[in-house]
Structures are given as structure tokens and as C-alpha cells.
Amino acid sequence: MCGRFALATEKHLLEMLYQLELRDDLLPAYNITPSQNIIACRISPEHGKRELVTLKWGLVPFWAEDESIGSRMINARLETAAEKPSYRDAFKKRRLLIPVSGFYEWKSEDGVKQPFYIKRKDGQLFSLAGLWERWNKRSEPLESCSILTTEPNDLIAKLHNRMPLIISQEFYERWLDPAVEGSALQELLTPYPADELTFYPVSRLVNSPANNSPELLKPLENID
Questions:
Q1: What is the Cβ-side half-sphere exposure of residue 124, based on CA atoms within 13 angstroms?
Q2: Which has the closest alpha carbon to 33: 96, 101, 104?
Q3: Distances from the Cα of 150 to the Cαs of 45, 153, 164, 185, in angstroms?
Q4: How many CA atoms lie within 13 A of 184 on its CB side?
Q5: What contacts 157, CB < 8 A, 6 or more positions away?
């Protein structure tokens, strides 16, 4: 699964990633948790062009009676998303990209869950695949999203049996385009190459959503 991630970068680097301008300032976030608002790149349903938007993490299907369902829908399994009623329509028409510096995973060691931080070896930003929905059963529409997960590559398999689906930059346009479907998507739907990622243990301070500081990204052996 993917339950925590970080977006700690400069605004211009995020804008370069998607070739878009971000209207608001970008504050570094070291411990992004479900139910928070997150930045994503999508095709606008209004004007059909790329845009950077803010959505709530935890997808609320358009048919849901209660928005609290979003707390149980932070991740969608790639293997079933195209068929499940909760995600089927979004998988066809409302795909997005979520920029991250890295994400966290936990592994039990001697009965204690140790957090690890996973990032690209070159330290560059990358994008997680997601789906979004608009829920209209309140005065102000709610836009929310889920992160797609897939089988782990050989590296992440050392930590967990799932990993987020990472979309390579060369495939951004294809992933976002709602006209692309079926076999044209298959090339994108594979675990990210293990040799392009790395991970290391970090402080258990990340376990608390209240903690949000650069210290969370430091390798455990480098923490004072």
C-alpha cells in the first residue's frame, strides 16, 4: 500500500516536472497523510488541458452517500481498479499524477515496525499514479483521489508486498489522456525499475502525523 509520502522540493522543480505553473506557494511537506489535501496533475474536465490542482487524499465515489468512505479508499489496487464500481469510471476518464520526493513503508523488525523512506537514487521528483472523483452531495463539491498500488519490484518486496504505481515521465501524456485506454495503457502498468530506487531506515517520528520536519527524511544513522 501507500499510506505516507513526502513532497519536499522547490516550486520551480515541480513546475518543470509537469510544464505547468503552480499558483500558490509550495511549502515542503515531509509527512503527508491520508485525508490531507495534496497536489496533483490532471487533465481539466473544463478546458481539456493539464492543470495542477489540490484534492483530498481518500477517494469519495460520486455515488457515495457519505464522504467518510474516503478514509477507506486511500489506495486502489491496479489489478481490480478497472472493474470495481468504486474506481471503474475514474480509471477510464479521471487519471492523475501525484508528485512526490519519496514515500514511506514499514517493516516489522524484532516485533517493532521500522519505517523506511523510498526515493529515486538520483533524488529527483517522481509521480505516483492516481484516480480522482468529484462528489457533489454537499454545498461545495469535493474533489478527492486514491493512489494506485501494484505488485512490488524486487527492491520494495524486501519491505512490503505492494508498492505505489509509479509513472515514468515519458508516459505522463498517455496516462493523463482520458482517450487512451485498454492495451495502450499496458506498457505503463508495471512496477517501477528496482535499480532506479533506493531506501533506508528513518526515525519513528514519522509514525505521528503531527511530525513534519526535514529530520524525518534523514537516514536513521545520521540522526543526532
A1: 8
A2: 104
A3: 27, 9, 6, 14
A4: 12
A5: none
Architecture of domain 5-222: Alpha-Beta Complex (3.90)
Query: Active-site residue 15, yes or no?
Result: no
The end-to-end CA distance of the chain, in Å, is: 30
Residue range 176-219, pLDDT digits in tens: 999 998 888 988 999 999 999 999 999 999 999 999 999 999 99
Q: Which of 51, 105, 133, 143 is catalytic?
A: 105
Q: Which of 2, 41, 143, 145 is catalytic?
A: 2
105 is catalytic: yes
Task: Answer for the pair 98, 14: CB distance below 8 angstroms, yes or no.
Answer: no
Indicate yes or no: pTM above 0.85: yes
CB 31 within 8 A of CB 209: yes
